[in-house]
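Hi R.,

Here's the chain you asked about this morning:
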Amino acid sequence: MSRISVRGFAVASATAVTTVGAVVGVASGSTQHPSNEPEAMAGDATLLADIPAGQQAQVQVSSLAQQASAQADAADFAAKKSAEEAARKAAAQTAVAKQKAAEEKERAEKEKKEAASRSATRDASSFATQSSYTIAQVQAIARQMVPSDQFQCFSNIVSHESGWNYHAVNAGSGAYGLFQALPGSKMSSAGADWQTNPATQIKWGLSYMNGRYHSPCEAWSFWQANSWY
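And here is the predicted structure, written out as C-alpha cells:
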C-alpha cells in the first residue's frame, strides 16, 4: 500500500476524509481502531477510496497547497522581521554617523575660531622692552597676546596668583612672577629676560595653560576646583 504526505498525515487507499476536510490515516484492512480516535468520527467520515479518483487528487492537491501556503506565510513573516531589524540597525547607524559628523563639525569650527583668534594676537617679541611696567601696562600686553575669548579666564588666574605683579615672589616656596612659576627659571623657555619682561612671562603662562589644560578657561576651571593649576 503506497503512502504520500499531506500536511503531516499519512494518506493511503483506505484513508478517511472527514466532513471538515481533514485527512486521517487508517490502516487498510485493519480490524482495530486507534485507542485515542473518537468513535463519532467513523459515523461522519468518508473513505478516500470511496471518492472518485479525480476528487482524490483534488483533496491531496488542496492539502499540499495549504501546507505550501502556510510555509510561504512563515517565510514571508521571517523576511519581514529580518527587514525590520535591518532597518532598525541602519537607522541607529545613521543616527550615530550624524551625531559624529555634528561633533566633528563643532570641533572644526571651534578650532577655526581659536586659530583666527590666535592669529590676531601678538607675540612677546613684538613688544619693546621697558625698565619697568605698571599693572595697567602688563594687562594691556596680555590683552594683545591672549585670545579675546580666553582673556577673562587668563586674567582671573593671574589676579589670584600674583595680582598682576610680574616681580611677585612667594617667600615660602620661591615661586616667581605673574603665574608663580616654581621654580621661576622654568619661564626661561619663553625668553632669557623672564625675570624682568612681563611679555615673556605672559608668553610662558599662555603656553603652559594651553599645553596642560588646552586653554586658559579650562585652566581656570581647574583652579576654581583646586585653588591651584
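One quick note: DSSP finds six helices and five strands in the chain.

Cheers,
M.
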